[in-house]
Design a protein that fits this description.
Layout: H1 3-10, H2 20-37, H3 39-53, H4 57-74, H5 83-96, H6 102-129
Membrane topology: Multi-pass membrane protein
Protein name: Citrate transporter-like domain-containing protein
Keywords: Cell membrane, Membrane, Transmembrane, Transmembrane helix
Amino acid sequence: TGLLARAWAALPGPPTFDRLDQFLGLNLLLLVACNVFSNVPCVMLLARVFVAAAPTPATERAGWLLLAWSSTVAGNLTFVGSIANLIVANGAQRAVGETVGFWAYTRFGAGSTLALSSLGAALLAAMLHLGLV
C-alpha cells in the first residue's frame, strides 16, 4: 500500500536519535505499524529502512534498540496484536469461563501500552545519551 513509505517520508529527515521527540514519534509509528501489519512483517520492513537511513553506527544501534523495544511492546496494544493475547484469552475462557472481548481488552491494552512504550522509549533515549547501553 505504500503506507509505511509515506509515513517514513513524512518525517523531517533520517532519524538521528539524538532528540526525545524522535524516539517518542518513532515509537508511536512503530506501535501503530506493528498492530496494522503485525510485528514480524513490520520489523522485517523497517529493519531495512532503519539500517539504510542510519548515518552512523551509533544511529543504527539506536534504531535497532528502539525497533526491538517498540515492536515487542506493541503486541499488547490490541487484543489481536499478539497471538499470545489470543492464547491467554482462550485459556481464561476455558479455565474459568471468563470472556475477554476486543474492546474490553483494548481499553486496558491501549492505555497501558502507550504509557509503558513511551516510558521505555524515553528511558532508552536517556540511556543512549548517557552511554549506558
